[in-house]
Amino acid sequence: MPEQPLKIMVIDDENIVGKRLKPALEKTGDIVETFEDGEKALARFNEDPFDIVITDIRMEKIDGIEILERILATSGRTKVIIITGYATVETAREALSKGAFDFIAKPFKPSDLRAVIERASKEPRP
Amino acid sequence: MHILEKLKKISRREPEIRAFCIQTIRFKKFLENARALLDLFKDGREKAVEDYIFDRHYVVTLIDSVVERLGMMVYDACVLVPKNGEELYAGYDRLKLAAGNLIDADASAGKSAGVAASGSTDPEYRLLSNALRWFNGKDAPEPETVMGFMKQAFLHVIALDAAEGLASDAATEDQALFENSGVKATDMGLYLIDLWKDALTPPDKNRATSDFNSVPLKHLLMDATCRDAKTGAINIQNDPDWVAAVTEYQLSLHSLKPDFQFRLETLASGYEQSDFIFIFAGKSTSLSELLPSGFHIETTDYGQFAWSLDISAKIIEDSLMIIGRRLFSKSARRLQ
Fold first, then answer.
1. Which residues of A touch B47 (CB under 8 A)?
2. Considering the domain boundaries, does residue A125 fall inside one?
3. With a CB-CB cutoff of 8 Å, which residues 75-134 of chain B face chain A?
4. How many domains does chain A divide into?
5. What CATH code is carried by the domain that includes residue A30?
6. What is the pLDDT of residue B87?
7. Residue B81: CB atoms within 10 Å
8. Residue B314, min C-alpha distance to chain A (Å)
9. Residue A2 lies in a domain
10. Record: contact B55-A16, CB cut-off 8 A
11. pLDDT in tens, B8-52
12. pTM of the predicted model as reported, rounded to 2 decimal places
């Protein structure tokens, strides 16, 4: 039986990230929606939850840690993957301690992110 | 020797040996900064060529890192050769300004501002493409690229004096300094300096190569012909024409021959990311005959640079054995 496509949300206020990630992640048949505005992304999530949320940490209106907290408060089954160009041990520790599934430093290859998504999709959901 | 005479001798030679050691250590810092710049270029190229996702922050940080590291390299160059400081800082300021213009121009440009080498019109990818051209673009005028400026800095530090005909004087002065400083090897025709110990306290007597615990020196001399093939006696030159300054993992080898420009620097710590071999040689030296494969060689009007980076300890040791054999064996004298 073919696997269900994953619903993946990408949030990054740098337009280029969503623009490049969307076609790369859709290659495997998953459904990808991209957002530059965290509030709009959360509103969309509340309408219809996603399996995977990939979010940048440092954004102007709402940061990735707040998005992480609000998503996990809404949907326990969603896996949140943090991406950041300002990778430090402290930010990684904070994100993981607040329930992020994994943490990837920019720049990265789509295949690296794909590997994390696959792990996240296989992990049993509570 | 009377104690006062001994003290007088030490006080005269101590600052000179110390200055030589400090210059050698500073040159290593200079090379480390040059290496860090090459690593930054490599990182940028990799992100441009391979299928990476990056944002503007990455490219701006990369350009800023190059500017910062280049500043450190210029500082080292000015410590080593103060007389060239003004010219080097003027060149550095031009490149710094170009970096600022690169970032500002791209920020204000629209989608129509051009395409990256990869064909992308995305501003981030175009900015990286322009940055790579600024680093080392083959089609950019060399003096306007970071790589061109790095070569210029190298020439200021190690080659330009030679081109101006000052090398023979410097070599003679160095030879006189070493001759009177207790650093003549007792078993080979070279002067040997312990970079840390001798900088603090000049040695009381000449020492043998075996008295030095230096991994690169040991390998450099492993196959060197310093014994007579028939008698087995050690061949010792009265006037050594090499100086080797060492630590446990570092070797800085200089030729003192006025007509043979050669300098080798290596770090063989076993930590691949920082180990390297760097060589500068005059134009007439055949580096292809001297060096094993795997070296990157750049030729300039004043001399040749060769380097090998990111190499294992085993490759460094093997390379040093080959170089030592070819440099010091009698049959290889034609290289010099």
1. 107
2. no
3. 122-125
4. 1
5. 3.40.50.2300
6. 92
7. 17
8. 32
9. no
10. yes
11. 554 555 567 888 898 999 999 999 999 999 999 999 999 999 989
12. 0.83
